[in-house]
Amino acid sequence: NASTLDFINVITGMTKSIIVTGAGGENTIAFDDINGSNGTFNVISGTYSDAGSAKNLIQLKFISTSEAWITISQIAS
Predict the structure, then answer these.
(1) Are strands 67-74 and 55-62 parallel, antiparallel or unpaired?
(2) H or E segment at 66?
């Protein structure tokens, strides 16, 4: 399964933090729209993990009303 995230009412400088727990399958996270239009999402570090019970901290920093930088991290084992 894939989950797609859209963001509305975004202003420049806004940050969002999302925690997603893996399900142990082949689930994915995708980013699509910002304020109703196709957004630009730049992953600057990290990789999403769907490994069983892996906790992903996804942090987005909106550098404009149509573009975000993303970092993804998991708890160290």
Answers:
(1) antiparallel
(2) none
pLDDT at res. 24: 86
Long-range contacts of 38-41 (CB under 8 A, 24+ apart): 39/7, 39/66, 39/67, 39/68, 40/66, 40/67, 40/68, 41/67, 41/68, 41/70
pTM: 0.89
Contact 57/29 with Cβ under 8 angstroms?
no
Burial-class residue 62 by CB neighbours within 10 Å (0-12, 13-18, 19+).
buried
The residue whose two tokens read 């997603």 is 20
